[in-house]
Amino acid sequence: MEPPIEVGADLRPEVAVRLASQGVRLLWRDDFPAARRLLAAMGKRLPTPAPDFYRYRQARRNRARVLGMVLVEVGPDLRVDLPRAPDVTAAFRAAGGAPGLVPLTELLGMLSAYEWRVKGVPVAALGARIHPHYGVFAPTRQDYVSLVTRAPLSRVRTAFDIGTGTGVLAAVLARRGVPEVVATDISPAAVGCARENLRRLGLSQVRVLETDLFPPGRADLVMCNPPWLPGAAHSPLDAAVFDPGSRMLTGFLAGAAAHLTSGGEAWLILSDLAELVGLRSRSDLLSRIEAAGLRVADRLDAPRRRHPGTDPLAKARSQEVVSLWRLHP
């Protein structure tokens, strides 16, 4: 890889876009706020995403690649030695970053994520805050959480929360009185995040395990809120939105019946966003449920939400419905 070229405030945004598009890395050596302004100016000069969802994703990937060519240096002391640079030490350490040349976009993401981690996200269903870690999807939208708060729940002694993330849904089940909840996630970052949140909430009846999908044993309720869109994930946060080959959805449905007690119930929390952008049909989802030996006993829908913006995803989300599917063997 060619070494980066050192740049500063005299670099024009159109030149930066041209160089970055050619794969030239740009090491910023000037005022830190000016670097943020350069990123914003470069973004305005990149092509507008196309109305087609696939080309929209391609344009977003290209945008991330180009803007990711602007680098800053993080020293061994985890500091950025630039005029007016913020103290990034705590955020960088929390995100598990390593000293060296770091894309400015990535560093700004770490700072933003750390702010969420410190302040927390208020969750009305808990009357408390959930503190997401870097790379773990934050429960900033509450529609799927509200579905878990109002779904019928009786005679449930044990529950599994598959793909727990921040642990927010496991916490809701515990607060609703489920005596024993086992939350799982394949991501070590998510496991650490969930454990910290549940400990902060004082919910000792929830155990968090690092495992792929189901823990050993059976439960009266098995629940999963998988990524809502089939497709490749290109970043840690993408992994909370995109499920390559519908692996998690398929795995949950295929294993649910075998992990239910007699009379138990599975909850699948899923948006119809994939249907709206043409990535999956409703008949395909129902076929997957049937092939797993499950039947739909009921479905609870959350109200539609307004989404600002004109990109394909924003338009689809204005029509999106998030549902909790109650499934029986």
UniProtKB/TrEMBL annotation:
InterPro entries according to UniProt: N5-glutamine_MTase, SAM-dependent_MTases_sf, Small_mtfrase_dom
Record domain Methyltransferase small: where: 129-270
UniProt cross-references to Pfam families, sorted A to Z: MTS (PF05175)
Entry GO MF terms: methyltransferase activity
Biological process according to GO: methylation
CDD domains reported in the protein's UniProt record: AdoMet_MTases
Keyword terms: Methyltransferase, Transferase
Protein name: RNA methylase
Lineage: Bacteria, Bacillati, Actinomycetota, Actinomycetes, Pseudonocardiales
